[in-house]
Amino acid sequence: MSGWLKVVGLGPGGAAQLTPEAAEALSAATDLVGYHTYLDRVSRRDGQRRHGSDNREEIDRARHALALAADGARVTVVSSGDPGVFAMASSVFEAVEAGPVAWRALDIQVVPGITAMLAAAARLGAPLGHDFCAISLSDNLKPWPLVLRRLEAAAKAGFVTALYNPTSKARPWQLDAAFDALRGWLPATIPVMFATAVGRADERIDTVDLAGARAALADMRTLVIVGSDATRRIARPGAADWIYSRRYVEEDRA
Ligand code: SAH
């Protein structure tokens, strides 16, 4: 039997947002590898082995998955959302680059998923309809001053910015520091969107102005979207506002 490795995105939460290609990779696997919390979202199958690990052990997890595939196993590594967005696909390729040459000949495939910012944007309306970027706010893997410089560049360039990993118990002050900095570069009226646990039973969506943006509106399952001057808010009676970004810019103010 020849092994393979698929790095699969489970989407943001609900089964309806798991692609048929991802479902196929999950059912064809002999071995599932991933962070416990994500593996718990995959239904159990007889004879399938599960290798759960802690959130921070990504490179070890990737090496383990590659070693299993090199031994002939059909291995599916799971990520939430899309596996290429702040997730396991990069760790797998990092392990391949540093690992035995034989790993380069393995059958490796990345199976895309719906990333959190797209699921969140769809709930809100169309906030990513104009130019946008994504930044991980986590300073576990990069220095905080670099995070701030990228935020500043994005804000000043007029990008709508999706913030992944906005806060956690270990990173309690960064998101408020980011909002304080953004208030120096952007108008106070720009919409800031908080989409928490999108696609799950406890989904929550809040939109406030930048002036009122607070880290208390977010937790580690929140995707924050900071609007730009193309971002508009349509008030609706008895329902959340629609948020969208216009597709055109009237004048170049540079
Ligand atoms: N690979 C994932 C992102 C992993 S980083 C993806 O493509 O979505 C983890 C961050 O993703 C979280 O801190 C949060 O910002 C965001 N996220 C993941 N799932 C989410 C969900 N269901 N709702 C809102 N944000 C989510």
Shape: elongated
How many helices does DSSP assign?
Answer: 7
- Strands of the widest sheet, in order across it, are 3-2-4-1-5
In whole angstroms, how far apart are the ends? Answer: 60 Å
Low-confidence stretches: none
How is the CATH topology of the largest domain named? Methyltransferase, Cobalt-precorrin-4 Transmethylase, Domain 2
What is the quaternary state of this protein?
single chain
CATH superfamily of the largest domain: Tetrapyrrole methylase, C-terminal domain
Supply the helix-strand structural class.
alpha/beta
Portion of residues within helices = 25-40%
Write down the CATH class of the largest domain: Alpha Beta
The overall number of domains is: 2
Rg (CA only): 20 Å
Report the portion of residues in β strands: 25-35%
Supply database-style keywords.
single chain, 254 residues, alpha/beta, Cobalt-precorrin-4 Transmethylase, domain 1, Methyltransferase, Cobalt-precorrin-4 Transmethylase, Domain 2, 5-stranded parallel sheet, 5-stranded mixed sheet, 7 helices, 13 strands, 28% helix, binds S-adenosyl-L-homocysteine
Could you outline the blueprint of secondary structure elements for this entry?
Blueprint: E1 4-9, H1 20-28, E2 31-35, H2 36-39, E3 49-53, H3 58-70, E4 74-79, H4 88-98, E5 107-111, H5 116-124, E6 125-126, E7 132-136, H6 144-156, E8 160-164, H7 174-185, E9 191-196, E10 204-209, E11 222-226, E12 231-236, E13 239-245
Parallel strand pairs: 1-4, 1-5, 2-3, 2-4, 6-13, 7-8
Antiparallel strand pairs: 8-11, 9-10, 9-11, 12-13
Helix pairs in contact: 3-4, 6-7
Bound molecules: S-adenosyl-L-homocysteine.
